[in-house]
Amino acid sequence: MNIDKIKNEFIRISKLGYLENVVSENNDGAAGNTFEHHLGVIENNLKEPDYEGFEVKTKKWISGKSSTPYSLFTLKPTSPSNGDNYMRENWGVYDKRYPTVKRFSTSIYAHKWSTVYKKNLLKLDVNKHEEKLYMLYADLNQNILDKNIYWTFDDIEVGANKLKNMFLVNANVKTENNKNYFHYTDATILIDYLGHYRFIELLEEGLIRYDNRLGVYGAKTKNPGTPHNHGGGFRIDRKNIEKLFKTKIEVSGN
């Protein structure tokens, strides 16, 4: 971990002003891709941190607002082995554009039930005795119908390995000639990760949730009408992410 190096690199990039998007305008992660391009990071979905021991997360701000949560890490269920497809086929609904293909997208919490497509309920269940995180599927009266999906605590701990140190970047956005440009204004360094059991505590409190994003490729893609797994994973709101760490350092840009 090299705090001075990543701080200096951020200040250098911030001084460049508004930088042209380096990926497709339809890419939700464009601000992050562009920042990491100038940082010299090759895009990856590996389980290791991005740069100098830091997991880099970038958030777009448009007109001073950004409501999207941070994706901490993606993680398929431990069991069954085809858990994502199991959820899609058993709990999903048919896509309106492609009525032979199912989709399944929802946010699921441990502190409350989530209503899914107005017909069923879902909830995360932290079982500390078994050291597993179950996904409970129930009817509208909270009668459990299915609890085959689960993650072991060990798998969650491995997935959270990227979180040891985080570098959170804020970016203002402007659009010119249908092209987005990003100015990286300030950043926050979070270090001294409080560990696996703190992660589980925030799950129980409902501050960390699990998002399923099992969609269908659209008409303008290479594979229209086929299943698309955006990567189900654990997410947290900006205001809560620092609760996973002991130390916070603010970095000002240009």
Write the layout of secondary structure elements.
Blueprint: H1 3-14, E1 19-20, H2 30-39, E2 55-61, E3 70-74, H3 83-91, E4 93-94, E5 102-108, E6 114-116, E7 120-127, E8 132-138, E9 144-152, H4 153-159, E10 166-176, E11 179-193, H5 196-204, E12 208-216, E13 227-229, E14 233-236, E15 245-252
Parallel strand pairs: 2-10
Antiparallel strand pairs: 1-11, 3-14, 4-5, 5-12, 6-7, 7-8, 8-9, 10-11, 11-15, 12-13, 12-14
Please describe what this structure looks like.
This protein is of the alpha+beta class. Helix content is 19%, strand content 39%. The chain is built from five helices and 15 strands. It has helices at residues 3-14, 30-39, 83-91, 153-159, 196-204; strands at residues 19-20, 55-61, 70-74, 93-94, 102-108, 114-116, 120-127, 132-138, 144-152, 166-176, 179-193, 208-216, 227-229, 233-236, 245-252. Strands 3, 4, 5, 12, 13 and 14 form a six-stranded antiparallel β-sheet that branches. A hairpin with a 7-residue loop joins strand 4 and strand 5. The longest helix has 12 residues, at 3-14. The chain is globular, with a radius of gyration of 19 Å. The chain starts with a helix and ends with a strand. The model has no long low-confidence stretch (mean pLDDT 89).
Mean pLDDT: 89
- What proportion of the residues is helical, as a percent range? 10-25%
What is the number of helical segments per DSSP (H or I, 4+ residues)?
Answer: 5
Let me know the largest β-sheet: 6 strands, antiparallel
Distance between the termini: 24 Å
**Given the helix and strand composition, which structural class is it?**
alpha+beta
Please state roughly what percent of the residues sit in beta strands, choosing from under 5%, 5-15%, 15-25%, 25-35%, 35-45% or over 45%: 35-45%
Order of helices and strands: HEHEEHEEEEEEHEEHEEEE
Shape: globular
Q: For the CA atoms, what is the radius of gyration? A: 19 Å
